[in-house]
Write a structure and sequence with these properties.
Layout lengths: L5 H14 L5 H13 L3 H6 L7 H15 L4 H5 L1 E4 L2 E4 L10 H16 L3 E5 L5 H9 L4 E6 L2 H13 L6 E5 L10 E6 L14 H4 L15 H9 L4 E10 L5 H10 L3 E7 L5 E8 L1
Helix pairs in contact: 1-2, 2-4, 6-7
The chain binds glutamine.
The site of glutamine (GLN) has 8 residues, from loops.
Length: about 280
Amino acid sequence: MSPSNVKEWLSYGKMLLKKSEIESYSIDAEVLLMTVLNFTKTELFTKDSHILSEEETEKYIKFLEKRKNFMPVQYIIGKCEFMSLDFNVNQSTLIPRCDTEILVEYAINSIKKNKFKTVLDIGTGSGAIAISIAHYCPNTKVTAADISENALKTAKKNAEKNAVSQKIDFIKSDIFENITSKYDIIISNPPYIKSDTIKTLMPQVKEYEPISALDGGSDGLYFYKKIISECKNYLNKNGELLFEIGYDQSLEISKLLSEKNFTEIKTTKDYAGLDRVVSSVYK
Ligand code: GLN
């Protein structure tokens, strides 16, 4: 007998995703069905005898099919949460990672402590970093740069969604190419995966997320080298340079920074205990 109500479709979805070896099959099926029905999680269980319309059924099956093929849930539903804010996502930008919240929290604390006023986010992607800073640090003016027109389009929509459009300038720029001011803090989560490593990433990353946002060149350090060697023209004295890094890049990046006379070079770990953020000050 084919499924008809919420309860039946939910267990069908879970079973289908489990068979396809999707580890998060249970929560994924729930989120997909909640999205189709516009239900809260509670409604999913209190209204479990709701019979799906033809349209709802079709949409849910399409969603399950995409997830079966490893498309990340966030791309399927077009949404994700970051720093307790809602973002739209699509395949022109990376899905914001919870590890990146460590970077943003570090930046917010530093901005408040040092009374920083101006922020540059290089490679803004969905705008998650720039928009979170604009939201949580109301006295800052943020510039968000990206080389990708489509990423900027997404970031601008996200700024509108989070009511911070007035506080962010969006600039199409290949790193510093079109940047003309100096800032109190420069922040970046650049592409940092070694080119050769990309093929070993999980299918949901390598087959769906933009490679241009992941590939950091043969040593994974291309963007750090470029930013570190050029940033002094764009950073105020006593300003801070803040990076998200790969778990094994802290030593190399700290060395690059000290060679360019940055001080107070510090590494912060993520929730998994891995090196994730490097901060430094320009004296
Ligand atoms: N942390 C990302 C990953 O999952 C990489 C992000 C980046 O290259 N900036 O692989």
